[in-house]
Specification:
Number of strands: 19
CATH architecture of the largest domain: Roll
Strand order of the largest sheet: 2-1-5-3-4
Helix content: 25-40%
Distance between the termini: 42 Å
Bound molecules: flavin-adenine dinucleotide, FE2/S2 (inorganic) cluster
Largest sheet: 5 strands, mixed
Strand content: 15-25%
Radius of gyration: 23 Å
CATH topology of the largest domain: Ubiquitin-like (UB roll)
Length: 479
């Protein structure tokens, strides 16, 4: 059984299959067809809804936009789901809806509920409604007819000075209702939500074919795109050890189930040079769900965080409920979408050593679209200098091999060279050319990928010699 607030009403579900998406439930079971299905793969935003939960101190609410098409029902347990049908107040449109009308921000209207729900979530986040934040809030929504200018104008009109809407007026009641739903373990047909590592270990013994998930932004596509029946699912989000986020002994510990939205600021505090990569990781609704553990465990050769973790020499903590083992990420990926994880193991957390002052990090993502697109190539360089001499170089790449990969020869052969010299960069260029044999696919040709590798290396050299060369091409996307 799961219990949540569907708009204002307490809703109980006990008979649906665990792999039912929130989108299918809304449209097929509740007849709430304002939430649209465009792509069913998290790409278009037509299915956006708002997920509301108690904040950490239980005295306020946090609103986040999510893609209902890639979300399984158990994610709703103990939370409030707000759909577009519920925004108006006694026949009066919500300010974001009214602004969309006044700014002529809708034509065919298919995308409009999704844009409205992204803006509604943004409206409740008390963020400055500048152009950059609005673009970020809309990063998961596509419109094929209106164009984005009127939609951005509608966002500015409604979100600049938000007035109290019915959700703010009802906040105390909503908090009371949500508190009454707490501490209730989700279970549906073929879905389990362990509350501890021991329960998870037990479930894996009982159901060896069960599939684990956290954000479900990856695994849900097996149901929506490949029509697979995910008959046994285990939701990892309620296990406390998988939600840890702290610094201990100069090491950042990130619980495997935490969504990017919850780890971004901490990551940026310690690794500000990841700003552009994190900003360009999928879209806000995907980042509101997607976990670092899922990004590592799916072992995609085009995932964005494995190259970062390789360059930072992170440790993947594998767990079976009885014992942990620390696996260097450089030994974690064994082949195309395979890892060293044993059948009874899961990723508990990811550990990253904090950088020293002699370290320079850069992460580059090249993709066809700026937002919400998978990398053609992702390249990460982590350089340690001792008075301009290369003391250590660690790298990570995506999109150039069957697994996330390092340029081992580059890392070994440049030690001891003077980083300021153009000859060092040129030597690196010729080495990196022979490190990988990238493939041709829809995203990029092998030749283009090869060229990106050398050009990104060159860019890294130019940027990090910037004080001499007066070159700075980085963009900072987070304040
Ligand atoms: C529209 C869209 C855009 C995307 N853009 C990007 C992008 O820009 N860059 C990028 O890298 N990825 C991108 N992705 C892929 C995906 O969002 C990420 O890989 C995400 O981090 C997966 O995390 P999750 O929690 O949603 O994983 P889930 O779907 O929950 O799980 C993914 C896989 O990992 C396993 N798993 C999850 N957690 C654990 C654990 N703790 N231990 C063991 N196994 C586990 C699951 O069994 C499953 O096989 C995108 C996806 C979509 C739909
Ligand atoms: S239907 Fe396109 S993102 Fe969900
Ligand atoms: S108004 Fe037609 S897709 Fe946006």
């Amino acid at each position: 059984m799961i219990q949540f607030l569907l708009n204002e009403q307490i809703e109980t579900i006990d008979s649906l299959a665990g792999d039912t998406t929130v989108l299918d439930y809304l449209r097929d079971n509740k007849g709430l067809c304002g939430t649209k299905e465009g792509c069913a793969s998290g790409d278009c935003g037509a299915c956006t809804v708002s997920l509301v939960e108690l904040n950490n101190s239980n005295d306020g609410l946090s609103y986040r936009a999510i893609n209902s098409c890639v979300t399984f029902l158990s994610t709703l347990n103990g939370k409030q789901l707000i759909t577009v049908e519920h925004l108006s107040d006694k026949g009066k449109l919500h300010p974001v809806q009214q602004a969309m009308v006044e700014q002529h921000a809708s034509q065919c209207g298919f995308c409009t509920p999704g844009f409205v729900m992204s803006l509604f979530s943004f409206y409740h986040q008390n963020k400055e409604s500048n152009h950059q934040n609005i673009e970020l809030a809309l990063s998961g929504n596509l419109c094929r007819c209106t164009g984005y200018r009127p939609i951005i104008d509608a966002a500015k009109q409604s979100c600049q000075d938000p007035i109290d809407d019915k959700f703010i007026s009802n906040q105390t009641k909503t908090i009371e209702k949500l508190q009454s739903l707490q501490d209730h373990q989700a279970s549906l047909t073929g879905l389990y939500e362990p509350q501890s590592r021991q329960q998870l270990a037990q479930l894996l013994k009982q159901y060896p074919d069960a599939r684990l998930f956290a954000g479900s932004t990856d695994i849900a596509l097996e149901a929506t795109q490949l029509n697979k029946n995910l008959a046994c699912l285990i939701d990892l989000k309620a296990i406390p050890e998988l939600n840890v986020l702290c610094v201990e002994n100069d090491t950042l510990r990130i619980g495997a189930s935490l969504p990017f939205e919850k780890i971004e600021q901490t990551l940026l505090t310690h690794f500000p040079d990841l700003s552009e990569l994190l900003w360009r990781f999928a879209s806000v609704p995907i980042r509101n769900q997607a976990s670092l553990g899922g990004n590592v465990a799916n072992a995609s050769p085009i995932g964005d965080m494995p190259p970062v973790l390789l360059a930072l020499q992170a440790i993947i903590v594998c767990d079976n409920g009885d014992n942990f083992r620390d696996v260097p990420v450089r030994e974690f990926f064994t082949g195309y979408r395979t890892t060293v994880l044993k059948p009874d193991e899961w990723i508990k957390e990811i550990k990253i050593a904090l950088p020293s002052q002699h370290q320079t990090l850069r992460a580059y993502k090249v993709s066809k679209r700026i937002e919400d697109d998978i990398s053609a190539v992702c390249a990460v360089f982590n350089l340690t200098l001792n008075s301009h001499i290369i003391a250590a170089l660690h790298t990570g790449f995506g999109g150039v091999a069957a697994t996330p990969a390092m340029a081992n020869a580059l890392e070994e052969k440049l030690i001891g060279l003077d980083w300021r010299k153009a000859s060092t960069m040129e030597t690196g260029k010729s080495i990196i050319q022979s490190c990988f044999s990238p493939i041709d696919d829809v995203r990029a040709s092998a030749e283009y990928r090869q060229m990106l590798l050398t050009n990104l290396w060159h860019r890294f050299w130019l940027e990090t010699n910037a004080s001499d060369n007066k070159i700075e091409t980085r963009v900072t996307h987070y304040a």
